[in-house]
Specification:
- It is a single chain.
- This protein is of the alpha+beta class.
- The protein has helices at residues 5-14, 30-40, 75-81, 87-106, 111-128, 219-229, 245-252, 261-269, 348-367, 397-406, 429-439, 442-445, 494-507; strands at residues 18-21, 54-57, 67-69, 131-133, 141-143, 172-173, 177-181, 188-192, 195-198, 209-211, 234-241, 274-277, 284-286, 291-305, 308-309, 315-316, 319-331, 337-338, 371-375, 385-390, 416-421, 446-452, 465-472.
- α4 crosses α5 (111-128).
- The relative contact order is 0.12.
Length: 510
């Protein structure tokens, strides 16, 4: 796998999947418009979406630091980033891992069976668990004081951080890997939480401040709340920008609480993640990252953050969030600033979401073996629409699956869950719409529920709380009150299809 982000960039360039942009561009709105045009390929049918290259802007007005964007902006590049031929291979990898590490020992095999699994466990342990190293490229340059920043002023002004959309409250770091430790048990967490750059420096030991957008359901916010409960006045925070692709992806994956994302990254990259201790705080960060921001968040301080043009395609509105105080910057001698623009789908983050979807399918099937497939269409912006196909076995089966998913991790945010039979291709939106609209009686087949919703859902009755609906579009049973005959779909017999196939060359002359 890739040693670092530069290694990935080199592969993208060799495969002609990256374009260097040497025309001078502004970090304010202009890069957003370019990236949006490239990823959406405006004027091209949606069936060809996401075909534009990764972009490396080498001439950003006022900066010598290049900006990398759209690195993960296609299925091909997302698969390449994770070292698989297709994202469906990721599904198989996880299935095989579950089979090797859970099924075999759990079924009570003999000593010989357990010994067969042991080498794989040993190999995994060397790949999974992060390693502490004495130094790394991310600390080639160390800045701890304001004098070192002259004439840039605030420490964050050193980097070409984007203003993405016109109504954004400022410039935002949109792809930060935010590291914290749970004050209760010392377990590490890494998540991606946007950071609005604030203008002022608020304390003598700070060289810059920003918002820390810890949504209430995220592990970073949980660590913050645990620090408050313990009476701590602050919590250490480190931010990594531009590590290798597997590390970036792992930070986006919604793992269970206190499961270290760096273990997942080690599995994906096939080698342990090397971590280096920070200079001013008690945290470790990926040694191969381009840029590291060290600092802290006070537990009794919040500031208005937003608005921000979000992945829903709408602005998320201002709200109070904690403040990150920057105490130290470390970076490579010639750092690359990696970022992404979120907005109306499709955007780069859609393909990260697609990879997460493929990876989580085997885990969902562990608990719900009746599930055949799941899909979150890009237009549903992850939380608005979840399609599920099942092997239906009994009355109410679809409703059981809906409620199980609403109780499972971040699937609880799914505003609309649509359940169909296993013969529906849920990756074909046209087929799904056709089947669902033909198969439902709205009064009978809609299941409403109240519960937690995504805080970015601007239509919910309260922030983070609202209603959800499940749609049972499966074939109905008599026990479900359906007594009418269910019609067959119209299809041409296979032998007729083959007969026409043989004649097609003579029939189709255009």
């Amino acid at each position: 796998m890739y040693q670092d982000l530069r290694d990935f960039i080199s592969v993208l360039e060799k495969k002609k999947l990256l374009q260097r942009v040497q025309v001078e561009v502004s970090r304010d709105l202009e890069i957003t418009e370019i990236a949006d045009r490239i990823i959406k390929q405006k004027g091209i049918p949606m069936s060809h979406r996401g075909t534009g290259p990764a972009l490396l802007f080498e001439n950003v007005t006022g900066f010598k630091i290049p900006v990398l964007i759209n690195a993960f902006g296609t299925e091909e590049r997302m698969a390449l980033a994770l070292g698989v031929n297709s994202l469906n291979d990721l599904t198989k990898q996880v299935q095989d891992l579950i089979s090797d590490l859970i099924d075999s020992p759990a079924r009570g095999g003999g000593l010989l069976d357990k010994l067969k699994v042991l080498p794989k466990l040993m190999d995994l342990s060397s790949k999974l668990f992060p390693k502490i190293v004495r130094s790394g490229p991310c600390q080639e340059v160390i800045i701890k004081d304001k004098l070192s920043l002259a004439p840039t002023g605030s420490g964050l002004d050193k980097f070409p951080i984007l203003k993405c959309w016109p109504q954004d409250a400022g410039r935002y770091i949109t792809l930060p890997l935010v590291f914290t430790k749970n004050p209760e048990n010392g377990k590490r967490n890494c998540g991606i939480y946007r950071m609005q750059v604030f203008d002022q420096t608020t304390t003598p030991d700070s060289i810059g401040t920003s918002g820390m957008h810890w949504q209430r359901h995220k592990d970073g916010a949980r660590h913050f709340a645990n620090a408050q409960k313990k009476g701590l006045d602050k919590i250490d925070v480190a931010v990594a920008i531009g590590p290798d692709p597997a590390v970036s992806f792992a930070g986006a994956v919604p793992l269970p609480p206190d499961v270290d994302e760096m273990i997942l990254a080690g599995y994906l990259r096939g080698a342990a993640v090397e971590m280096v201790k920070c200079q001013t705080i008690d945290l470790e960060v990926p040694a191969n990252a381009e840029i590291i921001l060290e600092g802290y968040v006070k537990t009794n301080e919040k500031q208005m953050e937003g608005p921000f043009g979000d992945h829903t395609g709408f602005y998320s509105l201002p709200e109070e969030y904690p403040v990150f105080h920057l105490t130290c910057i470390t970076h490579r001698k010639d750092p690359i600033y990696q970022t992404m623009v979120v907005g109306r789908p499709p955007m780069e983050d859609c393909f990260i979401g697609l990879a997460i979807e493929r990876m989580f399918l085997p885990l969902i099937k562990m608990y719900l073996p009746e599930v055949v497939d799941i899909h979150m269409p890009f237009e549903g912006v992850f939380h608005n629409l979840l399609l599920v196909s099942i092997k239906k076995s009994y009355p109410g089966h679809a409703r059981k699956v809906m409620h199980a998913l609403w109780g499972m991790g971040q699937a609880m945010f799914s505003k609309v869950i649509v359940v169909v039979d296993n013969n529906v291709n849920i990756h074909d939106t046209g087929e799904v719409v056709w089947k669902v609209l033909n198969n439902i009686d709205p009064q009978r087949d809609l299941e409403f529920a109240l519960g937690p919703v995504d805080v970015l859902d601007h239509a919910s009755r309260e922030i983070g709380y609202g209603s959800k609906v499940g749609i049972d579009a499966t074939r109905k049973m008599k026990e479900e009150g359906f007594t009418r005959p269910w019609p067959d779909e119209m299809t041409i017999p296979p032998e007729i299809k083959m007969l026409v196939d043989k004649k097609w060359g003579e029939i189709w002359k255009f």
